[in-house]
Amino acid sequence: MSVTLTTKPSFSHLLRVFLRIGLLSFGGPAGQIALMHRELVEDRDWISEEDYLHALNFCHLLPGPEAQQLATWIGWRLHGWRGGLAAGLLFVIPGALVILVLSALYAVAADLNWFEALFLGVKAAVLAIVVQAILRIAGRALNTQFKQGLAVAAFVALFLLDLPFPLIVLGAGAIGMAVAAMRPQWLALKQGGSAPPSGPRPWQRTSQAVAVCGVIWAAPMVLVATTLGRDHVLWDIGAFFSQLAVVTFGGAYAVLAYMAQKAVHGFGWLQPGEMADGLGLAETTPGPLIMVTQFVGYLAAYRAPEPFTPFVAGLIGAGLTTWVTFAPCFLWIFALAPWIDRLGNAVGLKGGLAAVTAAVVGVIANLAGWFVLHVLFETVGETRFGPLRLYTPDWTTFDWRAAVLAAIACLLVFKANWSVIRVLAVCAAGGLALGLQL
């Protein structure tokens, strides 16, 4: 691939433009990728169309939010490490600050009647938004019967067999790489492509990036271990979200059910409905949707604050969560960006990505099922039949108000084609009306 840069901005100009992008990056990854394309390819001609699409495909191979990693890669291409750090951070910081404020307000107001009623509507809207995400990804990803089978298998493995989410992602990737070598048509992989670039392989640049970014990633965890110990909630937060950062293929929706189940049933940090509240908050803010992790980290530390005050503990928990969630994103880009031309020709990696993307449809379907049960029913139990895990809702705790609001949200999303923020606003108002019996 030839690199075509028709205009190279000054570093200060890059800062101003990526700050603008960070403030306007609503609408999830699709909207964020489209925004960057308009700002950087169409309007300013900083990156060619070919380079932009090639880098986007590369970012799809990586765990983590692809839009943020694309911004980091563009900054790296324009101004090296300095540009990559600036672009990636400016893409994240505005949304992180907003989520931090909203998480703090949520922590102190969650027990108030009007606040609970407000989020009754938010949770109902989130159901429609998640269903929309399933249909969008399925329409793009499940273009062969084999991929459809992978999606069904992933759903069964998670919803009925309760297998670990990382196992599903890694297993799908391994299957995809094997199938790409033997039956690439099952994954609709295109044959051919440009020849890989000649010249020495950039091992030194990669090893330097891994060393530096690895130290940065681990630094706060070392501090927590030496000052508070590994039995403190902050260690649990950092370790869990570090693990999550490595397997976050397919975006926030793909890992949300796994994150919710661990946060609710594994660690006891949140109540079931609070995860839907957090996703609703993240949907209304700029930046990557995976920022919902900061909401979880804030509440987890806020509710087990010793030796800090709850507010200070919440700030530290949110900051630690954001750090270990996004530090790996910079590691992937700085370590692998020099290999982008070579990776673009790796059929095995393309097959692994295609299989993971197909499995993600089943993963998000599992999320939708989990949300439906915990939003519509106050009490949801589990029954085991050998390897099978079945959810058993208590029908006496059915919430008709949530069902009505979810139906309205579906009409607004699928029939009226309203934006996410408008749907959330209408459903939040409906929640206030029904929740407070106005």
Which helices and strands occur, and which strands form pairs?
Layout: H1 11-24, H2 28-43, H3 49-60, H4 66-109, H5 113-141, H6 145-160, H7 165-182, H8 203-227, H9 233-246, H10 252-266, H11 272-283, H12 292-302, H13 310-336, H14 340-343, H15 347-376, E1 380-385, E2 388-393, H16 400-415, H17 420-435
Antiparallel strand pairs: 1-2
What is the domain tally? 2
The helix content, as a percent range, equals over 70%
How many angstroms separate the termini?
A: 62 Å
Question: Which range does the strand content fall in?
Answer: under 5%
- Strand numbers in spatial order across the main sheet: 1-2
> Order of SSEs, N→C?
HHHHHHHHHHHHHHHEEHH
Low-confidence stretches: 1-5
Written description of the protein model:
The protein is mainly alpha-helical. The protein has 2 domains: about 10-95, no CATH class; about 95-190 and about 205-435, no CATH class. About 75% of the residues lie in helices and about 5% in strands. It has 17 helices and 2 strands. It has helices at about 10-25, 30-45, 50-60, 65-110, 115-140, 145-160, 165-180, 205-225, 235-245, 250-265, 270-285, 290-300, 310-335, 340-345, 345-375, 400-415, 420-435; strands at about 380-385, 390-395. A two-stranded antiparallel ribbon has the order 1-2. A hairpin with a 2-residue loop joins strand 1 (about 380-385) and strand 2. Helix 5 (about 115-140) crosses helix 11 and helix 12 (about 290-300) runs antiparallel to helix 13. It starts with 10 loop residues before the first helix and ends with a helix.
